[in-house]
Amino acid sequence: MPAVAPFTITPQQQDQYREEGYFILESVIPPEHLELLRDVAMRVIEAERKKAAENGGKSNGINHANNRIFSTFPSKEYAELKRFYRSELMAEICRATIGPTAFYFWEQYVIKAAEKGMKFSWHQDSGYCRSVPNHPPYLTCWCALDDMSEANGTAYILPFSKAGTKTVQEHVKDEATNDWVGYHGDEPGIPVLAPAGSIAVFSSVTFHRSGFNRTPNWRRVYLAQYSPIPMAQPDGKIMGRAEPFLKEGRIVEG
Fold first, then answer.
1. Which helix H or strand E contains 35, and what residues bound it?
2. 11-251 belongs to which homologous superfamily?
């Protein structure tokens, strides 16, 4: 018997995704998967700290190793993460948002250090995919590994109705942080205030940002992204991954 997702995504949530670009699923990550994601997160932190010590603490793009960590494709080293990102839970989210065909496109940890974790500027995830012009919106699953609050730098989501757009906007690089910024308005956004094990589900054209971590603890997030087609660049090279995940709504072999 195939596994069954421990929840049902409602028609109202699907409507909200289409109309406003997001919805929140509270406490849906199974305890064993939450433990797995947290365990790997701490190993990632130690590895990034070691790298920072070796290169004198220099930043690498948007990754500021002792402050704000972006660790991409951790499953290349920690293959056990596939148990989560290829789970029935994630399949159900894909079916309800991008449809019956899905490819595993991108993954990364987004971790903010205690008491000094940097903010992250307003952007659309598609704004970081400039090498794949005119790509269809893809799915972001922002998986909270800790209880999320405004104090520890949670994400803020800008609904389509507040942003005034459902399409990719021009992004400008912030030379101080290397962030690409695409929204310059006054809307504060809706904070993701949710317990550990929750998932903020949003489109790659949904604007979002995050605040500073002012608490004495790490703020850890695992980001999993799925696209409805392989993300092919004009030269034919694939951006990220194009790992088959769903075909006709069923999980396929990776």
1. helix 31-54
2. q2cbj1_9rhob like domain (2.60.120.620)
pLDDT in tens, 15-63: 999 999 999 999 999 999 999 999 999 999 888 878 766 666 555 544 4
Question: How far apart (Å, rounded) are the C-alpha atoms in residues 123 and 2?
Answer: 37
| pLDDT digit string, tens, across residues 72-88 | 999 999 999 999 999 99
Helices 88-97 and 11-20: angle between axes, nearest 10 degrees:
60
How many secondary structure helices (H) and strands (E) does the chain include? 5, 14
Domain boundaries, the chain: 11-251
d(CA 240, CA 231): 7
SS3 percent helix, strand, coil of the chain, rounded to 5, is: 25, 30, 45
Q: Which helix (H) or strand (E) holds 68?
A: strand 68-72
Contact 133, 233 (CB under 8 A): no
